[in-house]
């Protein structure tokens, strides 16, 4: 069923936990360029996405800086990358059910654009931009903090694994074996999907790992594979 303007704004505002003073900003944040092209809409959400991306980076950098006051710059960057990426943001959008409200053109709608990772992530950033314009820096900071605090806390214990795939690749090259490949399987609904990655080298499995994103599962699997190979080759 197609939602009216009022219902779309009201229900989406409830989902994200922020009431807009200017409801047109939220509407614009939900307008995909495919809808804009078909409905003569003045603007898509791309400008808000641009702004939201910058605001998101600022807030996460601030949260990481104050949460880990003794951590080196490189690890702070790793932490930000682990929670500010297309897949992680799309997961947050799925958890909020934003796909129910995105305005898509007929082609994207037929292609299940409501479920596309890129569209969900872009819409999430556009909403951050809209909140920033509507309520200022404080409102945007509060929204991002509420949404990202848990992912940041989950990512901190795994920072030592962030570059595990690179380390494994270098080890394989050093000991003269094939490059690692990753076999990925996903189970569960989109909003609770879990991925299992298995490292395959020269046809043999060397490690596996589970995570909420493909990237996280691959990193965990790479850690196990690295430890196995390092032990086998005494390096």
From TrEMBL:
<feature type="domain" description="RNase III">
    <location>
        <begin position="9"/>
        <end position="136"/>
    </location>
</feature>
<dbReference type="GO" id="GO:0010468">
    <property type="term" value="P:regulation of gene expression"/>
</dbReference>
<dbReference type="GO" id="GO:0003725">
    <property type="term" value="F:double-stranded RNA binding"/>
</dbReference>
<dbReference type="GO" id="GO:0006364">
    <property type="term" value="P:rRNA processing"/>
</dbReference>
<dbReference type="InterPro" id="IPR011907">
    <property type="entry name" value="RNase_III"/>
</dbReference>
<keyword id="KW-0540">Nuclease</keyword>
<comment type="similarity">
    <text>Belongs to the ribonuclease III family.</text>
</comment>
<dbReference type="InterPro" id="IPR014720">
    <property type="entry name" value="dsRBD_dom"/>
</dbReference>
<protein>
    <recommendedName>
        <fullName>ribonuclease III</fullName>
        <ecNumber>3.1.26.3</ecNumber>
    </recommendedName>
</protein>
<feature type="domain" description="DRBM">
    <location>
        <begin position="163"/>
        <end position="231"/>
    </location>
</feature>
<dbReference type="InterPro" id="IPR000999">
    <property type="entry name" value="RNase_III_dom"/>
</dbReference>
<keyword id="KW-0378">Hydrolase</keyword>
<dbReference type="Pfam" id="PF14622">
    <property type="entry name" value="Ribonucleas_3_3"/>
</dbReference>
<dbReference type="Pfam" id="PF00035">
    <property type="entry name" value="dsrm"/>
</dbReference>
<keyword id="KW-0694">RNA-binding</keyword>
<dbReference type="GO" id="GO:0004525">
    <property type="term" value="F:ribonuclease III activity"/>
</dbReference>
<dbReference type="InterPro" id="IPR036389">
    <property type="entry name" value="RNase_III_sf"/>
</dbReference>
<keyword id="KW-0255">Endonuclease</keyword>
């Amino acid at each position: 069923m197609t939602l009216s303007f009022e219902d779309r704004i009201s229900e989406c505002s409830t989902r994200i936990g922020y009431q807009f003073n200017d409801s047109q900003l939220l509407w614009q944040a939900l307008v995909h360029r495919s809808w804009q092209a078909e409905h003569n809409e003045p603007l898509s959400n791309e400008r808000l996405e641009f702004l939201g991306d910058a605001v998101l980076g600022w807030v996460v950098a601030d949260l990481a800086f104050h949460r880990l006051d003794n951590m080196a710059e490189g690890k702070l960057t790793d932490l930000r990358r682990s929670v500010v990426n297309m897949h992680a943001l799309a997961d947050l959008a799925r958890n909020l059910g934003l796909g129910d409200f995105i305005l898509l053109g007929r082609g994207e709608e037929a292609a299940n654009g409501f479920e596309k990772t890129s569209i969900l992530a872009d819409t999430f950033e556009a909403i951050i931009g809209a909140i920033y314009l509507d309520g200022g820096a404080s409102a945007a900071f509060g929204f991002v903090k509420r949404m990202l605090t848990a992912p940041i806390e989950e990512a901190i214990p795994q920072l030592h694994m962030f570059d595990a795939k690179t380390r494994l690749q270098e080890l394989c090259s050093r000991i003269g074996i094939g490059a690692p490949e990753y076999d990925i399987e996903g189970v569960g609904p989109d909003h609770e999907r879990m991925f299992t990655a298995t490292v395959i080298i020269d046809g043999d499995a060397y490690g596996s790992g589970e995570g909420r994103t493909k990237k996280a599962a691959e990193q965990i699997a790479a850690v196990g594979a690295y430890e196995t190979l390092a032990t086998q080759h005494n390096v």
